Amino acid sequence: MHVNQPYRTEADISILRGATTDEISVATEGGSVYFDENGEMEFSDQAYWQIKKIRLVDYSSIKEVNQKVLFHSINIVLPTMNKAKYVLKLIGTKYYDNQDRNLQLMIENWTFTLNNTLDKATNFSLLRTEPFLSLRMNISIFNFKGYNASIEGTGLIEINYEPDVFTWDNHLNLVNCSFTNIRSIMTTKELKEIIGEKDDEQPLG
C-alpha cells in the first residue's frame, strides 16, 4: 500500500491492518505501507465539520462521536526527503470542551524502517502531536520495533503535552517496544519553544 496524500477520516472506528499467521501461514511480516513526501494520516479530538464551518453553519454545539483508530501488523517504510513530515499526526484542542470527542489510537505489531534504496537521513518521523496531546487522547503502542533509521531535524516520536494539566499516565502506553540503530540529529534551533505559548504553558516534549 502507498500513501501519497494526506488522509483523514471521520469514521468512529478506523482499522488498517496486515494479515497475520493465524489467517495466512506465510504472513510472517505483515503488510507494508509506503509513505511518500505528501503522505500522512491525521486524526483529531475535534471533527472536521466542527473545525470547518460547512456552508457557513456552526456545528460546534453538536456532540461528536468518539473515534478509535487501530493499526495492526504493518511495516511502515519511510522515504528520504528534506521537508519534515509525519506518518501520524494527532491534533489536540487546547481547551476542554464537552462537545469534543475522545480519540483512542492503538498501534500493535508495527515495524519501522527507512526506504533501503535511499542512502541518506530522512526528516520524516513516525508520530507527532500538534500542538499538544489533549486530555481526550489516549495513545497505546504495543510490540513496536524500529530499526536502521537516520533522522535529522525531528524525532522518531514527538509528543508535546502540558505537564501542569496532566501526566502521561493513562494517556500514553508503550509496551514491549524496541529501537535498534536509530539516530536522531537535532540542532538547538530545532528544539525551540512552540510559538505563541505563554511562559506557564511550555510543553515538555
Give a description of the structure.
The protein has 205 residues and is mainly β. The protein has one domain. It contains one helix and 13 strands. Strands 1, 3, 4, 6, 8, 10, 12 and 13 form an eight-stranded parallel beta sheet that branches. The radius of gyration is 18 Å and the shape is globular.
Set out the fold topology:
Blueprint: E1 2-3, E2 6-7, E3 13-17, E4 31-35, E5 40-44, H1 48-51, E6 67-78, E7 85-91, E8 103-114, E9 124-130, E10 137-152, E11 157-158, E12 172-175, E13 178-185
Parallel strand pairs: 1-4, 2-5, 3-6, 4-6, 5-7, 6-8, 7-9, 8-10, 9-11, 10-12, 10-13
Rg (C-alpha, Å): 18 Å
Q: Spans with pLDDT under 50 lasting ≥5 residues?
A: 201-205
Number of domains: 1
- Individual helix count: 1
Overall form: globular
Mean of residue pLDDT values:
76
Distance linking N and C termini: 31 Å
Q: What is the number of beta strands?
A: 13
Strand content range: 35-45%
Structural class: mainly beta
Q: Give, in order, the helices and strands.
A: EEEEEHEEEEEEEE
Helix content: under 10%
Largest sheet: 8 strands, parallel
Explain briefly what this protein structure is.
With about 200 residues, this protein is mostly beta strands. The protein has one helix and 13 strands. The chain has one domain (about 1-200).
Record keyword descriptors for this entry.
205 residues, mainly beta, five-stranded parallel sheet, eight-stranded parallel sheet, disordered C terminus, single chain, 13 strands, 2% helix, 1 helix
